[in-house]
Amino acid sequence: MAPQDTLFLETTTTIQKEDMHSFMDFQVWDLPGQMDFLDPSFDTDSVFGGVGAMVWVLDAIDNYMEPIGRLTDTILHLTRSYPDIKYTVFIHKTDSLTEDFKDDTIRDITQRINDDLYDAGLENPPISFYGTSIYDHSIYEAFSKVMQGLVPQLPTFEALLTTIYANCHFEKVYLFDVLSKIYIASDTTPSDDKAYELCSDYIDIIVDLSEVYGWERKQENGDDADQRVPVSPPTAESFVSNIKGYHLYLREINPTLAFIGLSRDSDFEASRSLIDQNLQVFQETIVELLSDSGK
After folding, report:
1. CA–CA gap between residue 273 and residue 271 (Å, rounded)
2. Is residue 198 within 8 Å of 247, Cβ to Cβ?
3. pLDDT, tens only, 53-96
4. What's this model's pTM, rounded to 2 decimal places?
């Protein structure tokens, strides 16, 4: 959906559920903002009993004092019965603010919520904050961080990606869920917004091409099936030079995951054979890890 089309979306008045089937199978529940989770008649367990992460959206250009109070009350209420829920606050519509005012707003909201939770006796709460907008890639990156908190293999993925980053002339590497453009892991170097945007756009191109040039792939039981996949067949890869000064390298891990690395190294192409070999081992290791976990 194009960002401008969101103007025509109706306000959420009932709980809406969406099933997501990709790297991870999960449900997204969209809850109305006016819903009172503290009402004794509210069936809390049916909604939050199996929740791994809760995202609370605050409007950065509206009066956010009342929503902050409702959020802290909700967290304090749920923490007693569901201590494993991870909370994330999307400070939304930050594109409408100047850069300085955006930073001040994010800092103010973060400080107020943490202070309220601390004053209520909740130290070091499992809560994160991200400025988001539908007009750039920040919403995808924020959701990436939410999903990473639900991936049990995350430390292993990060260690493997950091090894690839250090030994293969990359500046940043990601493991992407291709269908959603959410990255489920990256190396442990600081995040780079422009690098993420470039990778996300690159995936769009690959997905579009795969829709045009898709082909049949055999199922595991040997039967033929017209099964379209977002990236080409096993061990498929793509390499592009000098895109905004970067070399981009993509390698499919399985039908839903892809490795993407960015490099500015002038000798990158000359090292391709070694990089290909390292990425082959990386792919086999990731596939084995996912197989052991039943993914």
Report:
1. 6
2. no
3. 999 999 999 999 999 999 999 999 999 899 999 999 999 999 88
4. 0.81
